[in-house]
């Protein structure tokens, strides 16, 4: 997809971090934006930020990507407001900093629900709308954790490896529909994902806060990653990192 002018981009996890940076980067490229998040205040903050840098359409959608029925209904709502959907960013993600044995069933369901099922639901329910276009693109946020195991991140690594594999499969299956698929594999990024993890019951607080501090100090700015994603989609690359 060489030009993003007047294309409609749907971004989950748009309330902060990588999602907000992607929204700003693709707004600057001329996209209309449908912003999706479970946090209403953060979602509005992103929308307000975008309103200062673009005159393109911006819609906000409060939605839990782990909710199958909500995700099933979302594409029609967005298409009704914007007229089309060209770009889908399955970006929402969470983690919990615990050993495998420390994880409760609820912890596993929480991480799997957002990181894996959220991506699957996005791809599955948005695909019929993407196929209506002459060209479209799916961008799934994986991680370097999709390649490498990490202590205290068993479920997170599992989901990110699955997203990588799904993206590679869809890239082949959807090529003849002129739908590109790119997976994002960031390493250390300055986001609040670990700060959020620190608030989960039973999380290893001291380790989590230490790692979060290192991410904030040494991590790549999400804006830099977003620029890499713009380039990757323009060149129809399999991955961006």
Give the topology.
Layout: E1 8-12, H1 17-28, E2 32-37, H2 40-51, E3 58-62, H3 68-82, E4 87-90, H4 105-130, E5 136-141, H5 154-173, E6 179-184, H6 193-198, H7 205-218, H8 222-234, E7 239-240
Helix pairs in contact: 1-8, 3-4, 4-5
What's this model, at a glance?
The protein is an alpha/beta fold and 241 residues long. It has helices at 17-28, 40-51, 68-82, 105-130, 154-173, 193-198, 205-218, 222-234, and strands at residues 8-12, 32-37, 58-62, 87-90, 136-141, 179-184, 239-240.
Helicity, as a percent range: 40-55%
Largest sheet: 7 strands, parallel
What structural class results from the helix and strand content?
Answer: alpha/beta
Strand content: 5-15%
Helix-strand topology string: EHEHEHEHEHEHHHE
Strand order of the biggest β-sheet: 3-2-1-4-5-6-7
Question: How many β-strands, per DSSP?
Answer: 7
Label the overall shape. globular
What are the low-pLDDT stretches, counting only 5+ consecutive residues below 50? 210-215
What Rg is obtained from the alpha carbons, in whole angstroms?
Answer: 17 Å
Q: Gap between N and C termini, in Å?
A: 19 Å
Estimate nothing, just give the exact number of structural domains. Answer: 1
pLDDT averaged over residues = 92
CATH architecture: 3-Layer(aba) Sandwich
CATH C-level class: Alpha Beta
